Automatic annotation (TrEMBL):
Transmembrane segments: 43-61, 73-92, 130-152, 158-179, 191-210, 222-240, 260-280, 292-318, 330-348, 354-374, 430-452
Entry protein name: MFS transporter
Keyword Transmembrane: yes
Main location as per UniProt: membrane
Topology in membrane: Multi-pass membrane protein
Alphabetical UniProt keywords: Membrane, Transmembrane, Transmembrane helix
Major facilitator superfamily (MFS) profile domain segment(s): 7-457
Subcellular location: Cell membrane
SUPFAM superfamilies in the record: MFS general substrate transporter
A Pfam family recorded for this sequence: MFS_1
Amino acid sequence: MPRQGAIVAVLAVAGLCSSFMFTLVVPIQARLPELLNASREDTAWVVTSTLLAAAVITPIAGRLGDMYGKRRIVLVLMAVMITGSVIAALSTGIVGVIIGRALQGAVTGVIPLGIAILRDVLHEKRVDSAIALISATLGVGGALGLPISALITERSDWHLLFWFAAGLGTLVFVLVLWIVPVSVLRTAGRFDFIGAAGLAVGLIGILLAISRGNEWGWGSPATLATGLGGLVVLLAWGWFELRIPEPLLDLRVAARPAVLLTNIASVAMGFSLFASNVIYPQILELPVATGAGFGLSLLAASFIIMPSGIVMMVLSPVAGRLSRRTGPKLLLVIGAIAIVIAYGFTLLFSSEVWHILVANLLIGVGIGFGFASMPMLIMRSVPQSETGASNGLNALFRSLGTSSAAAVVGAVLASYSVEFEGARVPTETGFTLSFILGGTAAVIALVVALFIPAKRAPQERHPSLRD
């Protein structure tokens, strides 16, 4: 069997690759209508398609991993991501890019599956530190990937972004195939296809309403139909899942206090993280003449954002050691406090570039500790046969938080904007309200974290497990 350090390293690289997909198109997002000869409403699907695919596939991939082998499903997801990257790289029109970006979204399921693999193969003393490292890649990949994307965009054709993604995915595929051991701990039974379809339809409806509501109008028939329709489908899905012997997700396990409260905190933490991803780059890049920006180039701005990812990576071993001594609950509390301080600092000090740098470093501390704690809390509360599906569900809740942040903060900045050189740009008031929203979400995460039971749940062995 490969050395455990090599397994952790490969899964960390896979996590970086996964999170990088979400900042891949940031440098060209504003230019997409021109590059793809399409309307801005149509090019918004380049981002929305990735979001929808990630949210739907992640919990389903977790269950498939529990049943058919976690490494096998990781390889499948990497292959889908590579295929999507090649499709987008070869496309000159919007349809191919949207299809490619949707397929790239599948790779998001790699991180919760990787965390579940760590629980299966690592010595107990190494699990917490390894999980902290893999969890950190959720933020690190985006923070480190942004300057790479910016550099490629400034120096070359935009298609090279997708060729780079395809090459990175191929490298990860080979490393996983070579280093990560085959999963031997599996849950027997039949896959719940009806449950998977119901979850997909319900999530797509709700996420469409959240992500496109600002553009469609929050009270428009399209928003209400997709949002309320998705909610009804999810309620029916939950009723169905509770009444079948082999559900896609065991909602009784998901309803355990530690799991439920961790997932609620994940929504709030996801909101706080993505709000910072929306707000700080815009402040850095807006022209000084607008009265709300610093006029940096995208590449320069990305170097201000990047240190937060480095902080997440550096803190991962600290998070692991602290979790072993005090339990993961304290990590989540510290993480939420750090983010509250970050937004509070920004509300008081945001007149210099270094103020934004300090705030982003605090965000890095918060996400580094907060995201590390969540899978640890989940895995202390579910049987080993449910680790893939439960971590996938937790990743889904984080996605709901990030989706909500994109929609809500986007709506606030659009509402508080002024005309500048033929375009609408956010005002200082819009940014201030967005800081308050991000900080409020962090406060909610802190309060919820305080109520999470600290005691480890008994780790029963599922009767259908086979070695």
